[in-house]
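Box 3.1. Reading complex inputs
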Amino acid sequence: MSILQKVSLPRAIITHIALWIACVIAVFPFLRVVTISLRPGNNLFSTSFSLIPPEATLENYYRLFTERQFFQWVFNSFVITSTTAILGVVLASTAAYAFSRYKFPGRMAGLSFLLMTQMIPGTMLILPQYLIMAKTNMLDTYMGLIIAYSVGTLPFSVWVLKGYFDTIPRSLEEAAFVDGCSEMQAFYKIVLPLSKPALAIVFLFNFMSSWNEVLVAYTVLGKPEMKTWPLGLMELQAGFNVAWGQFAAGSVLISIPTILLFFVSSKYMMSGLTLGAVKG
Amino acid sequence: MAVDPKVMEQNLTVHVLPAALEIGKLLLVVSLLVLFIVGFVKLNYKMWKSAFYMPLMVALSTLIAFGLHMVKADYSMIAFLSLFPILIGAFFKYALKGNYQSPILFAAPAVFGVFLLFIYPLTFNFYLAFTKLNLKTLSMWIETGTIEFVGFKNFVNVFTRGSEVEETFWAIFARTVAWTGINIIFHFFFGMILALFMHTKIRFVSFYRTLITIPWAAPGLVLVLAWRGEFHSSYGFVNQLISMFMQLFNCTQQNGCYSPIEWWTNPIALFASICIVNVWLGVPFYAVNILSGLQSIPMSYYEAASIDGASRWQKFTKITVPLLKPVVVPAMILDMIWTFNNVMVVYLMTAQRGGSQGADILVSDLYKQAFTFTRYSFAAAYAIVLFIILGAMSFVWLKVSKVGESPASR
Amino acid sequence: MKRSSFTSNLRNLTFAALALISTGCTKGCSTNNATTSTTENKNSDVASSTPASAGQIQIQMWDNEDPEPAKQLDIWMLQFMANNPDIKIVRTTYQTEDLRQKFITTATAGKAAEIVFGPSDMVGPLATANLLQPVDAFADVNSFVPAAMDAVKLSGKTWGVPMSYGNHLMLMFNKAMVKTAPKTTDELISIAKTLTKPDQKTYGFVMNNNEPFWYVPMLGAFGGWPLSVDAAGKATITLDTPENKKALAFLKSLKFEHHILPNECDYDCARGLFIEKKAGMIVNGDWFVDEARKALGNNLGIAPLPVVSATGKPMTPMVSGRYFFINRHVTGPTADAVKKWVAFLTSKPIQVELATKLGRIPASQEAHKDPTVAGNETIKSLIDTAANGRAMPPQLEMRAAWDGMRPVQQKVMTDKLSPEQGATEMQTVANERLKGLNE
């Protein structure tokens, strides 16, 4: 960070204050969920406004664990999400490499087509994708969701990775070809290791989008032991008497993995997200 | 009610083995698929010159069409799958002509997947959009696979719908444009400010950056529902804050000079609240993005400008802004698409049950038409219209901002 | 180097995941091996309805049960499966709207659940879409309380087997704040006015005034009803009526003239206020009794909805219940299993437990003769409060009527529309929705 100039004291104070306010705004709603989860009973609203309710209890957490299949939900989500993210990265990186390194007929068409898929309203995909999975016997399986999710995020991943690959000088691979590397070897021995930040970002995006996905999971999954966490939590608000306390408790817990993952990768995000654009 | 110990044990158990087995199966299936695709591509490279190549592909297409017809697949499926071989054949014969083997192999698995999971739905929707599928025709369609063909009626309905009480397509369209515009502008504005603040040499910056990304990192489903609660007119924090602020001017509900905003039921306030939530959700993405852009601008540029006597504003407009453009413009295009297509935030904020007319954007309205009101064919036509609109918008935006040509395609 | 640190993190994570998957097999997997391998190829394919290889028949039941009663349902399920090892019941809960959507979507591939357990208004859409079968073959429809059956009779057929009867609105009050229940709306308004102190966040009377379900009882008291059904069974939406205008004016006056309804109070707000003892009276359904009793104990009073003073007629809550709806494609051995399961849940012992443990009115007539049910104060008061009720219309038109009423009611309650305009607009929107359903 040595590239930055030192700032004057008044400016530093203003910066601190501004960032503090931003942090409070950013974190506040989440803290309120924590409050609801600590409140006994199932009240969404309360006339009391303290952040930690006076009669704070972990009852909701205990009940969530014993009365619901919470651990199974989280496990399912975790399996689906991590496999999706890995598979997504693998499929996207090879395709992105092709689009970045070669000129071939249909290249621009392919790239525009990938961008185009992002414009399809999600609602439109639900029924036909369901029909495909029903016909290929992939309902109520992890596999169906993993394939749907990892392909669903492919277009975005390919664009990000292609952008990053574009910034890696071709000369590196050419040198490798001289040394007798095949194209495949050049790809995974040279280009991939240099693209770690972008790969990390793509992994993170895939992880996030499938961790939070509801609509497809709703139609595809039916068995209770297959539920992912969003479906499980939605189950808590099935009828009129919503178990808000447990809902909030679950929400707090399932937020932890993604937040952690974000923190771990936050430094990477800085270099991966530029899409390589500036460096070029 | 206490939990039955048997149920409790069942709840605490995590079934790991089925998942492990299935992941194994998945790996197997995926590798087989990839092998099959690679083999298929290679086969095509061997065969494309043969005189029988195209006739063979045509025959294959006919065979698939016939086979699908026999198992009573619907017409969209038949059209989609049977055209595959002909198109592939034409591509190899007239476009590739035996070249470019490596990129095609590299791209094939992903392209195949995307084709199946995006293009089939698209074809399916085109088919639905010209037919009459609703609750009453549903079971006939399920059993026989046929639906009545109605031509462009659904498309006409999309544009002519609306009456003195129902919003027209154009009213919702206008709101969607406003929604997209407001979101992008505020995302960018606040993201820029935050990034500039974080791009200084002070302590705790990484701590701040960590907290600021919470809206992006935590699951949206949870956050949106939390925000919805905060907008409740008497229990939400937002109105509490407003009333505290008003009290500073001796203005309370009791003396009648102010009445709490009914965020949930007043359509304009509801729309405003949805915008606020979505802006809040999207700012971190921009902040991090812009910050990374800022950090990649070499300090030497600024130093050189200082020597030339440039003011701080000049440095910002002449160095920072142009160098940030390649970072910001793609982010904005993505954001535009995501915001335009954002069902979740609007749907959850408008209370899920098909209520709250007057705050819907096109996609959330589409969702309600398709699933709450079960107008499948109408929704299919509607979706295609939206798709075309978004495509046109992105195209114009790409042309205007001239980032369509990325470094590699130079 | 920041790059390498992240990669190692990433790698650790991946390894952790792999380790978890490969070695983390707990005791659960050995017991569940059998079920996963059988369900893999079988899934829930109703159309084929072939028994699993182990000779076990699997029945899927989808419901929208609240979290608390769902636990009791699970206990019954285990009891049943212990006695019928050849049948496996798989129960999944969805939100009401999603339940209907999910059933229709999955039906397109013939994979919908064998049984939907839900409210009566599923009948309209699902029977119209021809996804259900009449239930005469599955239970003796005459053995149930007749009032429970009206809500699932459509085009001369009965589409649901009732589990419970009720699901209707009533007046609950906190005896610590309200001594005796108001008999008329005038009484209710005057009691509520003395208790309402918005600055202290206490209210005399709360209800979910955004949902038409809470408004329909008033409409009934003014002599109106959302649908009128002619002798041939054809339903017409009747919302643009003088009765609806008067009833809407009455609802609106509660907020704008008498100032007793809190601002935009939806379900959770009303529920929260009542439970926190900040509201003297609430209009809510039988599903809420259990929770309210937990919060208020003996201070909870239950009374029928009051008589509307202007007309002298009582409010008429919509009465339905919770029903089993059976997938059209259920046949053969699966049908027998479904029949057994439904018979089990509607048998006398379970129906008595339904009354005593969940506080719901049993649908079986036989259970009503049981002394523990007949002597149960809660059940008695629930039956009393349902006395003035009218069956919820099962027709598809009701669906359109709900969708038409909901947004307009909200507009009237935010003073965007006058009651007269509101009634007309409700009719127009409902007609539009109906047209959409039919197009």
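In summary: The first strand of chain C starts at residue 57 and ends at 63.
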